[in-house]
Amino acid sequence: MIRYVLAISFVLTVIVASGSLFFPDYWIHRYDALIERQARVYRLDDKLVWSIIYEETYFRAWKLGNADEVGLMQVTPAVARQWAKETGLKEFEKQASENLRQFLSDPERNIQIGCWYLEKVREQYRGRQAETAMSLAAYNAGPSRVDEWTRDADAATMSESDFVARINIPSTRSYVTSILDRYRTTQKPISG
After folding, report:
1. Is 172 in contact with 141 (CB distance < 8 Å)?
2. What is the rounded CA–CA span in Å between residue 49 and residue 46?
3. What is the pLDDT of residues 158-179, one digit of tens each?
4. What is the distance of C-alpha 47 from the center of its chain?
5. Is the dihedral of CA 93, 35, 122, 75 positive or negative?
6. Which residues have CB under 8 Å from 92's CB, separation 6+?
């Protein structure tokens, strides 16, 4: 029995590994329609959302984070519950409280909530020169950290590079820089 399970595990591992080797374009673009649809709803650039998912999970819907984040956009339980409450739909609140992992493992729901939260934090930085970098930093480390990093400066006119230099959490600085680089160099349209 153990040999059978090990053999099946090995075969599945080989299939997944060869699939990502031979079909990388499929792997990284399989959620493009969902990304495009949800980004449009929340007035976000689909390439930015795609770049976040690339960084967060490399398009693995089942991925769990160290702080209980779930799914493609690594949505936290608190954000999911806040979204469910703000929708006003009791069924979403019920699902989010009963089985949060299952609720957030649905790619469409996860991208929807992730886009909702990204737009929610982005509203605080709209019109600033470093709007995108600040939004990404807030998505990763929280809006209070962005406030901390801009406290003694004019955040409205701060350049993106100046803001990134102020990020004193190395993993967040790397996160923001990596996503901005990927976002700005992504030439291929998401849906085509």
Report:
1. yes
2. 5
3. 999 999 999 999 999 999 999 9
4. 12
5. positive
6. 83, 84
Name the phi and psi angles at 30, rounded to 5. Answer: -70, -20
- Quick: pLDDT tens for 70-91: 999 999 999 998 998 888 877 7
Q: Which of 161, 125, 165, 163 is nearest to 143 (CA)?
A: 125
Six token digits for residue 122: 């982005």
Identify whether the C-beta of residue 172 lies closer than 8 Å to the C-beta of residue 145.
Answer: yes
pTM of the predicted protein model:
0.85
Please report the DSSP string for 127-182 in residue order: TSTTHHHHHHHHHHH-HHHHHHHHTTS-TTT--HHHHHHH---HHHHHHHHHHHHH
| Burial group, residue 102, by CB count within 10 angstroms (0-12, 13-18, 19+) | exposed
Residue 135's closest CA among 152, 153, 155?
Answer: 155
> Could you give the C-alpha distances from 152 to 120, 147, 157, 166, in angstroms and in order?
24, 9, 12, 11
